[in-house]
Amino acid sequence: MISINLLPVREWKKREAVRKQVSIFFLSFILLLAGLFAVGFAIQGKVSAQRKELKRLEARKAQLAYVDRKITQAKRKSKEIEAKFQAIEKLQQGRTRTVRVLDEIVTCLPIDRLWLKGLELKAGKLKLSGIALDNHTVALFMRRLDASPLTKKVRLVNTRRQKIQGHELMQFDLMVDLAS
Fold first, then answer.
1. 123-142: per-residue pLDDT in tens?
2. Rounded to an integer, what distance in angstroms lies between the CA atom of residue 101 and that of residue 93?
């Protein structure tokens, strides 16, 4: 005997397959959304952590900015002090140079034959004026000055005879270029 199944099994199987596919689709969609939310929360947490780190670093930068300003001020003061020391050193050198020049002039003077009346030191040039017994004494003084290590060049500006207390003496003016 032949049995005929009148129940719509094929339709049920088709419906069941469609229902499974729809439920798998919705389940997959829900899992995808859950995964996206999880990734979103993870990224949000990282962004939040990075923002906190940025705030902490900005606060640290503000603290260090104070230190940086102090360092800059200290460097500026150090430069000012160094400039003052250099100025003092330059003044000290100028002071000792004047003493050395005067000492050299006194060393070169022919004693009891030549007298200085004026001495002017400006910018590496020395102007001397004085009185000597004769031209030979002035020449001797010039040779001694010229041989000195402190002078570069000695020039006679002028000489003239002058009577002082009944004696005929030579009045002279010299220009001396000093060595650096």
1. 889 999 999 999 999 999 99
2. 12
